[in-house]
Amino acid sequence: MDGLTEAQLRKLAGARSFERGLGYLDAVSGVEVGADRVRASVHGTERYEAELVLDGPTGPAGECDCPYGQEGNFCKHLVALGLTVIARSADVPRQRQAARGRARSLDAWLSGLSRDELLTVVRAEVAEDRNVRRRLELRAATVRGDLAEVRSRVREQLDIGPFARYGYVEYADARAYADQAGQAVSAIRALTDSGRAADAVALAREAIGLLTEAAESVDDSDGGLGQAGADLADAHHDACRAACPDPEELAHWLVAHALDDMADLTDVDPLDYEDVLGERGMAALRRHAVGAWQANRTGWAEKYLMERLARAGRDVDTVIAVHAADLTPDGHTHLVIARELDAAGRPAEALAWAERGLRDTGDLAAVDTALVDHLADHYTRADRLPDAVTLRREHFAARRTLLTYQQLRAAARAVGRWPTEREKALELLRAEAGRKDIYGGPVLVDVLLDDKEVDAAWQAATEFGAHDDQWLTLADRTRAPRPADALRVYLRLAEPLTRRTGNAVYEQLVNLLLSIRDCHRRLGTPDDFTTYVTALRTAQKRKRNLMRLMDEHGL
Known about the structure:
Helix content: 55-70%
Distance between the termini: 57 Å
Largest sheet: 4 strands, antiparallel
Number of strands: 4
Shape: flat
Strand order of the largest sheet: 1-2-3-4
Strand content: under 5%
């Protein structure tokens, strides 16, 4: 560790987290140097506990209980702690040596105590620290094989009562509750290790239910309770491996748990239990899952479990049947089925499902656009280019946007029919704009600009209307040949900005002023611009950031 460097921290954290960690150097407090690791609190949005392992097998490593750190990442808080260690590198070796000395001294002192003296020390700690007492009571009950007492203690550890205010565990107390829940998990693991795996299975299931119920009343923003739930799921799996429970019964429980609304907390995945279930259990798992799905074909959990089991067995037909039983009205599910069939090498069936999706939807304005894209690609690959053009034309007619126009253009050009298709599309847009549709004029302007028909776009904007951003684009593209027309647009767009504040507004205004200046230069009227900008400065002089920005651009 003595060679810990900023380069190592940057490599562990990545450039972004490293740079962010630089801003947390003053937030590090309570640094505690141990023999092989350093712990500290880092105050960010909340207070987080960071631990930097100094001599890991592959170099420095760390853990932090912030949400990003709990995902296994080397976070900005660890960077800040590491930089703090580097800043104190002159003292760290001495502190580590002192920590080793304290550990040896403590071990020697404990080893030298008689049985009665050691009991006196332990009893004193038990009397002073409730958590120590609870851990030891739980360990003692486990060693005695007193299942009733272990169950009672586990239930006590999972009770939110001591932490809750008005029936809810606030964020400030959630970490302590999660730590206590972790002790319950340790007790269940101890049962398995002591040869009581069957009891551990039963207790783990009960604990899963209790923790799931408690989670509804806990602010688990930092993920501590979620980690306890994941650990509990692992403890249950390990106990099942050791106990080898009845596979039929286990399969039934796994399906029931997977369909529970709060199953995500413990994330018990039935497919992970294949090694415990064996062939008979997996068959039972599928049977129970099918029964649950048949009883509720639109249930998300039922569909998800069925789909995962089918995928694990590479059963494409069952995957399709699950989706086909709950088709969405916009054709998205048809698209999912088509993609599954394509991936399975069944293109004809995929095409049939995609076409059915359009028929079932009935309204191309409401259909999932990805389904239209998928079907058009199918037609193109099958050399059915006229069909692709027809589909794109009908989709554009139903949903008139720049994107659908561009897609129609690409399809029509592929068969040499773009001039004809373009005229029909423009006629449709002009008719819509003539009806004073709020979208008709702007869309017509967009497509004409996209076709680089700037004069036609200007005419359409004048006749049917356009958005301010479109007028800005039109002015930018016509400034050189028609500076007087562009100038009128810039002046109109600048006027409302003079009544607003904020740096983003000031940047927009300055950009317009630069364009206005260029128009006056092209028109040979620089004095008019000088008069305009002088009056503007006088009226806006209290806006210091605007004045500074104008100075920077010579305005």
